[in-house]
Amino acid sequence: MEDIMKADWTALTEEVNAYGCALTPPVLSPADCKEIANLYGEVGRFRSTIDMERYRFGRGQYRYFREPFPPLVAELRAAFYPHLLPIARDWAARLGQPAPWPDDFAEWLDMCHEAGQTKPTPILLRYQEGDWNALHRDLYGDLVFPLQVVIGLDKPGDDYTGGEFLLVEQRPRAQSRGTVTLLPQGHGLIFTTRDRPVRSSRGWSASPVRHGVSTVRSGLRHTLGLVFHDAS
Asked: Would the pLDDT of 150 be above 80?
């Protein structure tokens, strides 16, 4: 995951701090993107399939990978973690909250498992024409990593239209703020899992953040979701 290591993490950190999200340079080639998107039809690779309309999450479908993960998926998750860790610890310090995340990603997952969060969370999402995802937060248990990454696997404008990534932040004693991002193929979007620190008249406050996807107008949109805590 050389591209992840070479990214300008100072600039990405500043952007995440300012907006709650930041778009990375390409981390997957078009061929890698196609390889991962094509896994959607291999049902045996997944532990569960979620029909979003059934649960009133929106409309569309996604699947949680089972272990062992495809090598690219496992490598991406492990490669992003050490670069996101300083942001997570800084946010915890600003909010006066615990920062339980160790340097080693495998050790953090072991902590999740010991707490009863044993279900893997890497996720492959598929949206067709008319599909969308309601605003939500991916918590899954008491142990939560405050950032996650979604990677675009198809080309917006060519493979699909619509389907913008939505981030809505409920700011302290103010109106909510929305951010819209179109995911280029192979790029990752780092974004807030639950809440993030924002300055207020009383210092730092936790600003709740939710994310979703706007309606896909045409075509087919696949994304890879990397959550850095496992589920109960």
From this structure: yes
Separate counts of helices (H) and strands (E) for the chain: 5, 14
Question: Averaged over 158-171, what is the pLDDT?
Answer: 95
Give the relative orientation of helices 71-95 and 105-114 as an angle to the nearest 10 degrees. Answer: 80
Whole-number Å distance between alpha carbons of 134 and 111: 30
- The answer to whether the pTM exceeds 0.90 is yes
Helix (H, G, I), strand (E, B) or coil at 80: helix
Nearest residue to 136 via CA among 192, 200, 86, 181:
192
What digits encode the pLDDT tens for the residues 51-64?
999 989 999 999 99
Write the CB contacts of 116 (distance below 8 Å, at least 6 apart in sequence): 141, 232
Q: Find the DSSP H helices in 65-125.
A: 71-95, 105-114
Burial of 174 (0-12, 13-18, 19+ CB in 10 A): exposed
From CA 78, how far away is CA 70, in angstroms rounded?
Answer: 13
β-sheet bridge partners, residue 172:
none
Q: What is the largest CA-CA distance in the chain?
A: 52
Amino acid at 119: K
Give the DSSP H/E element, type plus range, for residue 229.
none
One DSSP character per residue, 2-39 reads HHHHHS-HHHHHHHHHHHSEEEEEE-S-HHHHHHHHGG
Instruction: Provide mean pLDDT across the span 64-73.
Output: 96
Angle in degrees, CA 123, 88, 4, rounded to 5: 60
CB 147 within 8 A of CB 228: yes
**Residue 1 pLDDT class (50, 70, 90 cuts):** low
